What does this fold into?
Amino acid sequence: MKTAVLFIFVLLCFSCKEKPADQASGSYEYRLCPTKVIKSFPLDDETRYNPFYLYTFEDGGKEYLSFLNYRTNQLLFYDLNTCKFLFKVELDIEGPHGIGIASGYYIQDFKNMYISTYNYSGLIKVDTASLITQKIPYHKTQEGYNVLPSYTPSSHPFVAPIQIDNDIYITQIAADHIYPSAETPVSIMIDTVSKVSHSLPFTFGDALSKEQLSARECSFSRIYNDNKFIYSFYIEPDLFITSKDHKQIKRIKVESKYIKEIPIKPIPDDFMKGAKQSLELARYGDLIYDKYRNVYYRFAYPETELDNQITWRGKAVYGRAKSSVIILDEQFHVIGETLLADNLYNTFAYFISKEGIYISKDYQMNYDQSEDYMTFELFELFELFELKN
It folds into this structure.
């Protein structure tokens, strides 16, 4: 009898995928379902797992995956569909096209590859022949703010540069010892032609309280969609949506049903304890847009307790032990949330495809996981009918 009831429930759930949208209000929710469809990208002996500078992009009708192996100053490129390794770009450290040691990376397509480095206060544009094609200095903004040279474009936190026509928008960090955090602009706009910079009128003080700022946990992600910038601060349940010029700011609460509160705790002086605490406290994560399904995903990390016998320093590269994905419609209404299996996925690494969202399956803390591959599992978005009592 139980088997028959379960079969009927599953049948009803999947039959609702064809329901018209105007019947969905109040009657449907969305869930992400693992499919066991895997993409594995091979790593050679000199490349170590690193998901913090990983992007997918399209060029010439083909889809690629690329990431920065910052230990060797190399950019790696793969065919996204076949997972086949294609080639490397060796970035010179010295010489006329030397960039020093790369500290960050972003690629929009083969004509727009940007490197940040500790040797240069700005972005460096390079091509696939390792030649520097343009340097974009930060400088001081027209408003008198000294742009922080520590900016590193990354895919986690997702703070990639955003290019709109000739303007590039980069993010800043809150660092009281350099500039008052509450007054620090979250984003800077750089005109790549005139090289003039502008501080945008949305500061960390506009988003975070004094208590949150004092906790020194000001990480956030940022995307651009539908002529709006959207910010997801990790210590704050609210999203911040701004106009392109950042003069209009809208605040929308987007809470996880698995997080009751966001605790603010001082960072322990013991670095080992601090590393463990940062992976235990409830926090929010990156916000991304799925252009194929017109929804947003926001990662969330419920509070958890980790093993005291494990050294957690340096383990953040593998993600969080417990995580969920909040699903939002285009108006930022929560229309579902999926709790992922514990100790299995690394939601710091992901990419969107026509099939769904691929999430890294490389949480390597509690079982033997090969370091010879970067492995992603496909999750599909389903619209499910809510059975009412």
